[in-house]
Amino acid sequence: MRKQRLCALDELEEKQARGYRMSASRGQEISLIVVRQGKDIHVYLNRCPHTGVNLEWQPDRFFDMENKFLQCATHGALFRPEDGYCVRGPCAGDSLQAVPAWVSDGWVVVET
Ligand code: FES
User: Fold this and answer.
1) pLDDT over 90 (residue 37)
2) 73 in ligand 1 pocket by Cβ < 6 Å?
């Protein structure tokens, strides 16, 4: 496991999700979704449990029209931003894979 700074907390607006790519162990690159809800930060692998594709509609467009759920652009699955649980869609009952993350000195730090 290795800890890495992902982004400054100030880069994230309330109720906003952004995508980041970073190197992980063994030189692999991973795609992450970072969600800010108040003081809480949630980070998930950007990989739909249904087929493994990235979720976003366009760069940094992860939320549905109501700005309530993260939505997969391919088949429309809806995920709760606070825990990644899929509430509707072909992978209902599955979850996005959470990545350990926290805020330290104004930075979002992840463990990959
Ligand atoms: S690929 Fe995400 S819902 Fe099908």
Assistant:
1) no
2) no
